Amino acid sequence: MKFFKRIKKSKIVWLLLVLMVFMYINNSSLFAKEREGKPLLLAHRGIAQTFSLEGVEGDTCTAERIYPPEHSFLENTIPSMEAAFAAGADIVELDVHITKDNQFAVFHDWTLDCRTNGTGVTRDYTMAELKKLDIGYGYTADGGKTHPFRGKGINLMPSLNEVMKHFPNEPLLIHVKSNDPEEGTLLAQYLSQFPKERLKAITVYGGDEPVAELRKQLPEMKVMSKETMKACLIPYIATGWTGHVPEACQNTELHVPEKIAPFLWGWPNRFLDRMDEANVRTIIVGGNGSGFSSGFDSEEDIKRLPENYTGGIWTNRIDKIGEIYNKPE
To answer: In terms of DSSP bridges, do strands 222-224 and 172-176 run parallel, antiparallel, or are they unpaired?
Structure first.
C-alpha cells in the first residue's frame, strides 16, 4: 500500500514539475520571437509646461507650481499637439469636457479657476464663451510674482471638433474627464459621423459609465476605463499562463504601471504579442498606478524599461523622449 502511495505522490510531483516547466517556457520572453521596431510614444496633453509632482493630488493647481518655462506651449492646445507630433509622438492624449451648448472643450482641469481668468466649470459656458478666456492666465513659476503666459492664451482653448479637423489622420487618445454617462452618449454621437478608418486611430478612455455608454454605440472602437482594465487583467492573471487572452480584452487599451508589469504572464514580449493579437494597445506608465500621471520623461527613466521594449510608453516630455528614439543610427 505504501508503495502505491509513493508512486501516486511521485506522479503528482512530476506533473507539477512538468506544469511549471510549461508555464515557464510558455511565458518566458527568452523563447519568444524578438519583436521589431521602436516603442509607440504617447504624448500626455501634447507638449506642456512641467511642474513638480511632489504632493500633487487631484485638485492641485499645477499651473501655480510650474518650473521656469523651457518653451511657449500650453497643454491641450492645437500648437502643443502639433509640436508633440513633430517631436516624435505616435499618439497625442487630450482631455475633454462638455460645454453648455453640448460641444466638447479640450481642457484638462475640472474647473476653470486654476489656469484661466474664468470660474466654474466648462458646462456653465458655451464653446464661444470659453474661447474668450485666457488659458495661460494662472501659470506662474515664482509664486505669483510673474505670469509668463498671461494674455497669451486667449482663443487657444480648442473644441474637439477643431482638433479632429486639424488632425484628420493622426492617432488621438481622448480622455473623458467625468463619469457622466450622458457625455459618453454625446461623444459617441459626435464620433459616429466619422468614417470607420478614421475611428481606428481614435481611442477613448475615462470614467466607467461614459465609456460603457460609448461602447454600446460604437462597439468596435478601442476604449479603456477602470472597468475594462479589470475585466481584462483579472481573468488574464488567473489564466494567462496558458497563453489565453480573455475576450474582454478585445479592442481595449491597457495602461500598465511599471511596478506591476513584470508580474503579468509573459511580460514583456509574450504579453505584448498576445495583446497585439487581441487588438489591445499596451501603454506602460510610471510608478505603481496610484499617483499622478507619472511617465517616462528622461533618459534615466527609459533605462528602467525592458531591453528592446517595443510597447507603448506614456510620457509627459515627448520633447525629450522623442529625441532619444529618433536619434540617427
So the answer is: unpaired
Give ∠ CA 93-94-99 in degrees, rounded to 5.
160
CA distances from 289 to 124, 236, 259, 261, 284 (A): 32, 18, 8, 11, 10
For residue 86, the one-letter residue type is: A
pTM beyond 0.90, yes or no: yes
Range with lowest mean pLDDT among 147-156, 168-177, 288-297, 317-326? 288-297
Please tell me the number of Cα atoms within 13 Å of 92 on its side-chain side.
27
- Confidence check: pLDDT of 270 > 60: yes
- With residue 282 as reference, give the H or E element that holds it: strand 281-285
Which of 218, 201, 270 has its CA nearest to residue 35? 270
Closest CA to 273 of 91, 27, 41: 27
Distances (CA, A) of 58 to 53, 55, 158, 261, 287: 11, 10, 23, 24, 17
